[in-house]
Amino acid sequence: MRARCGDIEIAWFEVGRGSPLVLVHGLADDHRAWRFVLPHLMLEHRVILYDFRGHGQSSLGTPDGTLGQLAGDLALLLDALELERAALAGFSLGGTIVMRFAIDHPERVDRLVPVATSSRVGRAAAEWYVERARLADRGLAALLPHLEQDTRDQFASAPDLAAGHVQIRHESAADPRGYANACRAMARLREEPLDPELGRITAPALVVAAADDQLCPPKAAEIIVSGIPGARMEVVEGSGHQLPVQRPDALAGLILDFLATTTRV
Q1: Which end of the chain, N or C, is more open, meaning fewer C-beta atoms within 10 Å of its C-beta?
Q2: Are residues 67 and 93 in contact, defined by beta-carbon separation less than 8 angstroms?
Q3: Is residue 160, in this structure, part of any structural domain at all?
């Protein structure tokens, strides 16, 4: 299904019944990044997935390279679906999007689950994002070899799972301008970290980290937890960065338990 949201059309998908839970994917992915987690969640919740700006089947519009715009797109999607509030879970870049949304629209977040993500980036990471954006500006042929290697690196501890994700990324980044836009949004976290604003988040929050994550290590989750009032943290063993693919059962269990046992003030 598609919804007109400002200057773009967002491709969105819905399964299950119950209270609404929106899942937000990461950089160069699309909604299928949650494919192994979804069967567990759909039994208890109305699960809504979407492809964010310039990724998958969603259009690019006029991108400005900011998390604020990506979070604003999510607000417009909830408006289109007539949802005043929902639980939000975001992976990697999706985690920064849902945190930005929870800062900007605290009253619309029922519960918040940032997964394998960070509220800031260091100098080396910011330079990496800028360089990847430059590659994407040169076109898909220049980007794809690096995108494939980045994917294999993320699945170094589970190489048998890499092929499916490479396919998703080939398809999701078919318009490399969307990838470049998202990279620029992440690079801005160097100069504009979310840390000073995390205290504005009022929803109960569970921050999930992967023990072997080299991109967003547990230390990044600890920083987020220290900034969000009342937040708690869980670390999943036996997974690198791609937690929704490597340990989907464990992640789904944490999300379901959190949604079932916490109360929104």
Answers
A1: C
A2: no
A3: no
- Write b or e for each residue in 222-234: b if 16 or more Cβ atoms lie within 10 A of its Cβ, otherwise e: ebbbebbeebebb
Average pLDDT over residues 191-218: 98
pLDDT score at 264: 64
Is residue 66 included in any domain, yes or no? yes
Q: What pLDDT, in 10s, does the model give residues 53-62?
A: 999 999 999 9
User: What is the domain count for the chain?
Assistant: 1
Mean pLDDT, the chain, integer: 97
Q: Sign of torsion, CA 245 247 249 254?
A: negative
Question: Residue 246: pLDDT above 80?
Answer: yes
What the block records as the tokens of 166 is: 């490479």
In whole angstroms, how far apart are CA 14 and each of 17, 41, 65, 204?
9, 12, 27, 24
Asked whether 95 and 114 are in contact (CB, 8 A), the reply is yes
Amino acid identity of residue 63, one-letter, is: P
Cα separation, 150 vs 216, whole angstroms: 14
Domain membership of residue 186 (yes or no) is no
Tokens representing 226? 């220290």
List the structure tokens of 35.
Answer: 């494919």
Cβ contacts of 106 within 8 Å, gap of 6 or more: 200, 201, 202, 203
Average confidence (pLDDT) over 129-150: 96
Task: Please check whether residue 164 lies inside any domain of the structure.
Answer: no
